[in-house]
Amino acid sequence: MNWSIWIRQTHRWLSIAFTVTVIANFVAMGLGEPPAWVVYSPLPPLFLLLFTGLYMFALPYARRGARNEAE
Predict the structure, then answer these.
(1) Which of 7, 27, 32, 47 has the most CB atoms lying inside 10 A of its own CB?
(2) What is the maximum span of the chain, computed from C-alpha positions, in angstroms?
Protein backbone atom coordinates (compact mmCIF):
# COMPACT_ATOMS: atom_id res chain seq x y z
CA MET A 1 0.00 0.00 0.00
CA ASN A 2 1.21 3.47 -0.89
CA TRP A 3 2.39 5.65 2.02
CA SER A 4 0.03 8.52 1.10
CA ILE A 5 -2.95 6.19 0.92
CA TRP A 6 -2.05 4.77 4.35
CA ILE A 7 -1.84 8.28 5.86
CA ARG A 8 -5.18 9.28 4.29
CA GLN A 9 -6.91 6.13 5.61
CA THR A 10 -5.40 6.69 9.06
CA HIS A 11 -6.66 10.28 9.01
CA ARG A 12 -10.18 9.07 8.25
CA TRP A 13 -10.19 6.55 11.11
CA LEU A 14 -8.70 9.11 13.49
CA SER A 15 -11.50 11.52 12.62
CA ILE A 16 -14.04 8.85 13.58
CA ALA A 17 -12.21 8.17 16.87
CA PHE A 18 -12.05 11.90 17.61
CA THR A 19 -15.76 12.35 16.93
CA VAL A 20 -16.65 9.44 19.20
CA THR A 21 -14.50 10.78 22.05
CA VAL A 22 -16.04 14.26 21.74
CA ILE A 23 -19.56 12.81 21.82
CA ALA A 24 -18.63 10.68 24.85
CA ASN A 25 -17.23 13.80 26.49
CA PHE A 26 -20.50 15.71 26.05
CA VAL A 27 -22.52 12.76 27.32
CA ALA A 28 -20.27 12.44 30.39
CA MET A 29 -20.56 16.17 31.09
CA GLY A 30 -24.33 15.92 30.86
CA LEU A 31 -24.32 13.23 33.53
CA GLY A 32 -22.24 15.25 35.99
CA GLU A 33 -18.59 15.97 36.61
CA PRO A 34 -16.63 13.62 34.32
CA PRO A 35 -13.26 12.15 35.30
CA ALA A 36 -10.14 13.78 33.87
CA TRP A 37 -9.38 10.91 31.50
CA VAL A 38 -12.76 11.44 29.79
CA VAL A 39 -12.16 15.17 29.44
CA TYR A 40 -8.71 14.69 27.92
CA SER A 41 -9.56 11.64 25.79
CA PRO A 42 -10.13 13.66 22.56
CA LEU A 43 -6.59 15.08 22.66
CA PRO A 44 -4.53 12.09 21.39
CA PRO A 45 -6.64 11.62 18.23
CA LEU A 46 -6.67 15.39 17.75
CA PHE A 47 -2.87 15.63 17.79
CA LEU A 48 -2.57 12.70 15.40
CA LEU A 49 -5.14 14.36 13.15
CA LEU A 50 -2.98 17.48 13.20
CA PHE A 51 0.09 15.60 11.96
CA THR A 52 -1.70 13.57 9.30
CA GLY A 53 -3.62 16.65 8.15
CA LEU A 54 -0.45 18.73 7.86
CA TYR A 55 1.18 15.93 5.89
CA MET A 56 -1.74 15.79 3.46
CA PHE A 57 -1.79 19.59 3.22
CA ALA A 58 1.93 19.79 2.36
CA LEU A 59 2.00 16.80 0.02
CA PRO A 60 0.91 18.61 -3.19
CA TYR A 61 3.48 21.35 -2.59
CA ALA A 62 6.25 18.81 -1.99
CA ARG A 63 5.32 16.93 -5.16
CA ARG A 64 5.24 20.16 -7.15
CA GLY A 65 8.69 21.11 -5.80
CA ALA A 66 10.14 17.70 -6.63
CA ARG A 67 8.67 17.87 -10.12
CA ASN A 68 10.18 21.34 -10.72
CA GLU A 69 13.62 20.15 -9.56
CA ALA A 70 13.54 17.23 -12.02
CA GLU A 71 12.99 19.57 -14.97
Answers:
(1) 7
(2) 62
Cα–chain-centroid distance for residue 43?
10
Residue 35's region, left for phi above 0, alpha for psi from -120 to 50, else beta, is beta
Helix (H, G, I), strand (E, B) or coil at 35: coil
pTM of the model: 0.82
Q: DSSP state, 31?
A: T
- The domain spans of the chain are 3-70
Q: Is 49 exposed, middle or buried (0-12, 13-18, 19+ CB in 10 A)?
A: middle
